[in-house]
Amino acid sequence: MIFSTEQLERYNRNILLSGFGEEGQEKLHNAKVLVIGAGGLGSPVLYYLAAAGVGTLGICDGDVVDLSNLQRQIIHTTNDLDKLKVISAKEKLSALNPDLKIFTYKDRINSKNILELLSDYDYVIEATDIFSSKFLINDACVLANKTLIRGSALHFCGQLMSIKPKESACYACLFDTPPTGEVPTGASVGILGAVAGLFGTLQANEAIKIITGVGTPLYNQILTCDVREMDFRKIAIKRNENCRVCGQKGITSLKDY
Ligand SMILES: [Zn+2]
Question: Residues in domain THIF-type NAD/FAD binding fold (predicted)?
Fold first, then answer.
């Protein structure tokens, strides 16, 4: 495509990057990315992807903005209380970059609707804190063969991995099934807002790398950090040939967890 003078100026600092150029910018412009969760992780993901010029963004979230969200969900403001998060987020992103196509989905994802949702996108970013959704999104991406960049943040810690279905380890290769019983949540043990900001930003970096082909994606690895000691670790993980989701006898349909 031919970028306008204004676009060339807007994206100048991207285009200058080694290995990037106008070609990299065009890949971003043509990319269709679905972000599931417009909260603590989703806020920086959405801001940075929109700023970088990812041409089509889908935002999926069923919640409305609550006062207790604002400590970390920086795409929403006090004026947005009780507003649907997808609407609040879209307003900010459209103001930041009017170049983009932004689609919103306020229905909660489930095993019946997620494949249709994914079908319009090339890449999926999982930015939810609900374990059942994390597993469902993983399964759907394996079935639909969509590259998934997943993250989580809780307490002082965060986690990041990228998944190329049937080629690299999936979420179920690592954790098999959702935890049972009482699981810690942001509402029970707290979450430092800046930790969500850090890991959401890392997810945006991963997405931009994977879309443009710059650098090495975090496939078959999981990055973790406890910010109390700034203890970043990159742990190698292996795809499980017998994984109940992506293995030889893997899933052929979806279920709700
Ligand atoms: Zn697997």
Answer: 11-245
